[in-house]
Amino acid sequence: MIKCKNLNKNFDDGENKNHILKDISLEVVSGDTLAINGSSGSGKSTLLHILSGLENTSSGEIFIDDTNISYLSENELCKLRLEKIGFIYQFHHLIKELDVYENISLPLLVKKTEKGEIEKKVNEIIEKVSLNDRKNFQIDKLSGGERQRVAIARAIINNPKIIFADEPTGNLDSKNAKNVFSLLKDIANSNNSSLIIATHDNGLTKMLDKKIIIENGSIHYV
Ligand SMILES: Nc1ncnc2c1ncn2[C@@H]1O[C@H](COP(=O)(O)OP(=O)(O)OP(=O)(O)O)[C@@H](O)[C@H]1O
Ligand SMILES: [Mg+2]
């Protein structure tokens, strides 16, 4: 479960105070799926980053299960993110020096998972995202859509209880977009995870249980 209460975010550039998110409260329970819509620059990515503890709030509280994440140290927050959260970034953030297999195995390495177990899990997930024949490719040799699928595999390899996806189908044709969505939905279903997706994609939005729009910093349920 993830919940925020009266969340505000300002970006202060010295002269102007940009109040990007205004007094936002929402809750997403286990197994629920939420689409976040809104025009470019409305604050979708900022909201996802804040909810997942990647960025600070200006004020307000965020609870992941029963933990108020504002009170956690950086170390505790990292641990909680590793245990409970999978994040698919809008711009992937893959490591260019590593190949597909190595990128996907990173969260397991950080968790000090045993080598045989890593091999089993990574191979399973590579199969699911249809990247078998790209396993040992460097990231810069992949297409945009293939990178997207590596980013998705890396985010879900730990079976996170909360999955955030920032425009996960942004670079994909409709067939691959459908596959990616089914994959996210399957993982979320089998693990009873919450799935929170920022997207412009109407087709994708329609397939989620709930939908909010960010307008002028506030959210509206539609
Ligand atoms: N670190 C920052 N410093 C100052 N302003 C920022 C910062 N990060 C984001 N912003 C501003 O906050 C606003 C919201 O950005 P955000 O990336 O959340 O939008 P978005 O809804 O995800 O847009 P898109 O659909 O284009 O991805 C933008 O106007 C952006 O310029
Ligand atoms: Mg964005």
What can you tell me about this protein's structure?
By secondary structure, the protein is of the alpha/beta class. It has seven helices and ten strands. The protein has a six-stranded mixed beta sheet, with helices on both faces. Helix 3 runs parallel beside helix 5 and helix 5 packs parallel to helix 6. The longest helix is centred in the C-terminal third of the chain and has 18 residues. Bound molecules: adenosine-5'-triphosphate and magnesium ion. The site of adenosine-5'-triphosphate has 11 residues, from helix 1. Magnesium ion binds next to helix 1.
What distinguishing features does this structure have?
Rossmann fold; six-stranded mixed sheet; globular; binds adenosine-5'-triphosphate; binds magnesium ion
| Distinct ligand kinds | adenosine-5'-triphosphate, magnesium ion
Based on helices, strands and strand pairing, what is the structural class? alpha/beta
Radius of gyration: 17 Å
Task: Describe the global form.
Answer: globular
Write the H/E string, N to C: EEEHEEHEHHHEHEHEE
Q: What is the number of independent domains?
A: 1
Counted by DSSP, the helix tally is 7
- CATH architecture name: 3-Layer(aba) Sandwich
Question: Can you give me a brief rundown of this structure?
Answer:
The protein has 222 residues and is α/β, with parallel strands linked by helices. It has helices at 44-51, 74-84, 100-110, 115-128, 144-156, 174-191, 202-206, and strands at residues 2-12, 17-28, 33-37, 59-64, 67-68, 85-88, 162-166, 194-198, 210-215, 218-221. The protein has a single domain, classed as P-loop containing nucleotide triphosphate hydrolases (Rossmann fold, 3-Layer(aba) Sandwich).
